[in-house]
Specification:
Layout: H1 87-101, H2 105-126, H3 131-169
Helix pairs in contact: 1-2, 1-3, 2-3
Length: 171
């Protein structure tokens, strides 16, 4: 049988916290499940960060982290609270689309333009999201109104032309 049995303790690296000097032992056994460090095992918060400085007050080696160094706050990454979207900008976009596709032709476009302008005015001071939707609702509303006005002009000019043609030929 050899000395390298699986039950033999493995010595820890020299200088590792909690390990015995090189060649004299193994890592300490892990604490029992549910066990907590004893009171006073960690330094009080007023004395600085854990781990405590080495004996003699020597600074950490070059490249090692300087525990307790005043680096300031960590940058704020992640998902914070986002500002809400203005409700009138959503209403403006929906009303303009409804007016453009012909469900409520002129009323939807006019409603989209009005609510879009009100929403843009609110967004200047409120800090909410939705400026793009308000602009899109206003633009689509104006385009819808322009199409309906051009369509009405073409329709009335066609009716006037047809009336003049029927009177010219005596129909």
């Amino acid at each position: 049988m050899s000395d390298n049995t699986p039950d033999a303790p493995v010595p820890g690296p020299a200088g590792y916290p909690g390990s015995a000097p090189a060649g004299q032992g193994a890592y300490p056994p892990p604490p029992a499940q549910g066990a907590y460090p004893q009171q006073g095992a960690y330094p009080p918060a007023s004395q600085g960060a854990y781990p405590p400085p080495a004996q003699g007050g020597q600074p950490p080696a070059y490249g090692a982290p300087a525990y307790g160094a005043p680096y300031g706050a960590a940058p704020a990454y992640g998902y914070g609270a986002q500002p809400k979207t203005n409700a009138l900008s959503i209403v403006s976009l929906i009303a303009s689309i409804v007016g453009f596709i012909g469900i409520l032709p002129i009323i939807g476009s006019i409603g989209g333009v009005i609510t879009g302008h009100i929403s843009l005015n609110q967004l200047k001071t409120s800090g909410e999201n939705g400026r793009g939707m308000a602009l899109a609702g206003t633009i689509v509303g104006y385009v819808g109104l322009a199409f309906w006005i051009i369509g009405a002009i073409v329709l009335f000019s066609f009716i006037a032309w047809a009336a003049s043609q029927s009177s010219q030929y005596g129909y």
